[in-house]
Amino acid sequence: MPAGTRPSSNSTPEQLRFPPAAGFTVRTDFKGGEVSSDLGALVLGAVDPRIGLIGRLVQAIGDSRDPRHIPHSMRDLLTQRIFQMASGYEDGNDANALRHDSLFKLAAGRAPLEADQALACAATGPRPVSCCVAMATSPIPS
Fold first, then answer.
1. Which of 119, 45, 98 is nearest to 111 (CA)?
2. Measuring CA to CA, which residue among 53, 97, 104 is closest to residue 75?
3. Planar angle of CA 18, 95, 68, nearest 5 degrees
4. What are the tens digits of pLDDT across the range 21-32?
5. E strand map for the chain
6. How far apart are CA 116 and CA 103, in angstroms?
7. What is the pLDDT of residues 88-109, one digit of tens each?
8. Which residues lie below 8 Å from residue 80, measured CB to CB, with a gap of 6+?
9. Residue 127's pLDDT band (cuts 50, 70, 90)
10. Judging by DSSP bridges, how do beta strands 15-21 and 24-29 pair with one another?
């Protein structure tokens, strides 16, 4: 744009820039490409380190699985499930599609545009939540 020229009041910026997230530069444009409507997941990803919800849940639940044989840590599974629930995907049926969503991946600390950085599938994702519900609804031993 030439110096001294102002954009018209009805123009759309070519690109929006956000603060870095999970070590990645975050920019949006209006050209298509990787598309997501779930910016809220990125907000949750920025808030959680401040409030420590996921970390406290991981400590409370524990994880007895052998880390050599699991692609998704308990932290990853809980982050994915809680962020999806908070974004309106409460039943887990959308996990297969959302596991590739660039903003959910970024919010969970994964490389948003790398195919090998997918989140857990629907068969894996609900397990920690089911475990927590089972623990919460079990009778307290006397």
1. 119
2. 53
3. 90
4. 777 777 777 776
5. 15-21, 24-29
6. 15
7. 888 778 888 899 988 888 888 8
8. 72, 95, 98, 99, 104, 108, 119, 120, 125
9. low
10. antiparallel
